[in-house]
């Protein structure tokens, strides 16, 4: 049985070139980058080179890149670090109801410490309107944290417009770009972003490594204490093999960005056309026009998400009910609840399919036909 992996928004397989680069470093470069002897200097050179590559991938300076253990820590550092650094100027934070739990749960923890958080609602396409941000903004707002592209339905947010709105305001602007990085061309200077979170394992890099871009002169307090690594912003010996692997994954991803985006868009259209040709009932969650090309979230009326996922897995098709951290959970997607309400059937019958560089058109056609067979059994 051929297994077809359509859950790349959860994680991606390691690219062979990334594996080769990491293996090389693991075999040859073991020194601590903070050590001044030759072993340490060799590691420092590898670290500096990787930092430069990753900085260039978003139009930043190397000194603005802080390595973390992944997207979750990057989000935590951005939110908690800003709250700690700016609490004397206000305790109001703006975010959305469709953020990743790394953002939502961090904001909720701050509410217990006396911070006030405004959670903006999306429209039916999963988009946050600029007017909603403008209406929520207050003199004591210190942070606005809104994701670049949604990990469940793929909806893109008006990042540049929000940044422009905040130019004359004290609030720091953070965006979780974990899903957008590698499929969208990102220039932090052009966009006007202060803080940006990224992880490696969504772009065929290793798990357990990410970074937070911190715009120069943006005050942020550390949340880990120890050594003076990462310019005293994130303590702990840097994970050099993972960092070098991250940089290689970024190089591969950025070198073929336009081709990859076109490929993902083609796979998404192929799945849609296959489902249409099979004459089953389905509805799109989100928008095809303003979304990440590798994510497709579909509601199948008269089906049940848990049964659907089990049936798909039995025939070798891997998909998801929503964000990776809630995969396997029968709880409704908080994103779909925010978009459609708790009474909507869509929160109980929607599946996320997400594409990767290892997928083929033949796989997508086969998957579409097999999905249709399962859906037809439910709907008939």
Question: How would you describe the overall organization of this protein?
Answer:
The protein is of the alpha/beta class. It has two domains: 4-12 and 256-379, Aspartate Aminotransferase, domain 1 (Alpha-Beta Complex), CATH 3.90.1150; 16-255, Aspartate Aminotransferase, domain 2. Helices cover 42% and strands 13% of the residues. The chain has helices at 16-28, 38-56, 71-86, 101-111, 130-136, 159-165, 188-191, 229-232, 240-255, 257-277, 305-314, 334-340, 346-349, 361-379, and strands at residues 4-5, 65-68, 92-96, 116-120, 141-145, 172-176, 195-199, 210-214, 283-285, 295-299, 317-318, 350-354. The strands form three sheets. Strands 2-8-7-6-5-3-4 form a seven-stranded mixed sheet, with helices on both faces. Strands 9-10-12 form a three-stranded antiparallel sheet. α6 links the parallel β5 (141-145) and β6 (172-176). α1 runs antiparallel to α9 and α2 runs parallel beside α9 (240-255). It is globular and about 70 Å long.
State the helix count.
Answer: 14
By CATH, the architecture of the largest domain is named 3-Layer(aba) Sandwich
The CATH superfamily title of the largest domain: Type I PLP-dependent aspartate aminotransferase-like (Major domain)
Strand order of the biggest β-sheet: 2-8-7-6-5-3-4
Largest sheet descriptor: 7 strands, mixed
The end-to-end distance, rounded to whole angstroms, is: 26 Å
CATH topology of the largest domain: Aspartate Aminotransferase, domain 2
The helix content is: 40-55%
Domain unit count: 2
How much of the sequence is in beta strands? 5-15%
Number of DSSP-assigned strands: 12
Class per helix and strand makeup: alpha/beta
């Amino acid at each position: 049985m051929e297994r077809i992996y359509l859950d790349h928004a959860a994680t991606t397989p390691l690219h062979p070139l990334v594996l080769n680069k990491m293996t090389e470093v693991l075999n040859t470069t073991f020194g601590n980058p903070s050590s001044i002897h030759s072993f340490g200097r060799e590691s420092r050179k590898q670290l500096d080179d990787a930092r430069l590559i990753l900085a260039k991938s978003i139009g930043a300076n190397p000194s603005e890149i802080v390595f973390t253990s992944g997207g979750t820590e990057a989000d935590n550092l951005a939110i908690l670090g800003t709250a700690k650094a700016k609490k004397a100027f206000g305790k109001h934070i703006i975010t959305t109801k469709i953020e990743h739990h790394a953002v939502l749960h961090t904001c909720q923890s701050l509410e217990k410490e006396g911070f006030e958080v405004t959670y903006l609602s999306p429209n039916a396409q999963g988009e946050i309107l600029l007017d909603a941000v403008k209406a929520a903004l207050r003199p004591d707002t210190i942070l606005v944290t809104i994701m670049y592209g949604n990990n469940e339905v793929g909806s893109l947010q008006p990042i540049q417009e929000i940044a422009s709105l905040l130019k004359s305001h004290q609030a720091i602007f953070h965006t979780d770009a974990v899903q957008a990085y590698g499929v969208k061309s990102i220039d932090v200077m052009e966009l006007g972003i202060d803080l940006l979170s990224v992880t490696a394992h969504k772009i065929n890099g290793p798990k357990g490594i990410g970074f937070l871009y911190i715009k120069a002169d943006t005050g942020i307090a550390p949340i880990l204490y120890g050594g003076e690594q990462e310019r005293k912003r994130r303590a702990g010996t840097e994970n050099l093999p993972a960092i070098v692997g991250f940089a290689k994954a970024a190089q591969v991803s950025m070198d073929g960005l336009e081709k990859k985006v076109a490929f993902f868009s083609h796979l998404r259209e192929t799945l849609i056309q296959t489902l249409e040709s099979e004459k089953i009932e389905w509805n799109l969650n989100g928008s095809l026009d303003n979304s990440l090309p590798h994510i497709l979230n579909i509601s199948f009326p008269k089906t049940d998400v848990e049964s659907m996922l089990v049936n798909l897995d039995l025939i070798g098709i891997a998909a998801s009910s929503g964000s990776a951290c809630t995969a396997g959970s029968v709880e409704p997607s908080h994103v779909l609840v925010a978009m459609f309400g708790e009474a909507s059937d869509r929160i109980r019958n929607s599946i996320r399919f997400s594409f990767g560089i290892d997928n083929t058109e033949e796989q997508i056609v086969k998957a579409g036909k097999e999905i249709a067979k399962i859906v037809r059994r439910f709907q008939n």
